[in-house]
């Protein structure tokens, strides 16, 4: 699990690499079903091992 500082650094690095704004969201943190559905539609996989 990322610390708040680690999360901020990770988000900034991914944003620099992709050239796009990035939001890092923990899946369990989203309770609103409408927000969750919007995230599911717009999320993009950036790396798969």
Structural features:
mainly alpha, 49 residues
Report on the structure:
By secondary structure, the protein is mainly α. The protein has one domain (4-42). The chain contains 2 helices and no strands. The chain has helices at residues 4-18, 33-42. The radius of gyration is 12 Å and the shape is globular. The two termini are 18 Å apart. The model has no long low-confidence stretch (mean pLDDT 87).
Could you give a short description of this structure?
Helices cover 51% and strands 0% of the residues.
Uncertain regions spanning at least 5 consecutive residues: none
What Rg, in angstroms, do the CA atoms define?
12 Å
Give the rounded overall mean pLDDT: 87
How would you classify the helix and strand content by structural class? mainly alpha
Helix-strand sequence: HH
What is the helix content? 40-55%
Assign an overall shape. Answer: globular
Q: Would you count the extended β strands for me?
A: 0
Distance between the termini: 18 Å
Strand content: under 5%
Biggest sheet, in brief? Answer: none
Q: How many DSSP H or I helices? A: 2
Number of spatially distinct domains: 1
């Amino acid at each position: 699990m990322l610390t708040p500082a680690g999360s901020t650094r990770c988000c900034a690095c991914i944003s620099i690499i992709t050239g796009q704004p990035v939001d890092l969201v923990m899946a369990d943190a989203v309770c609103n079903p409408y927000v969750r559905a919007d995230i599911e539609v717009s999320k993009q996989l950036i790396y798969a091992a």
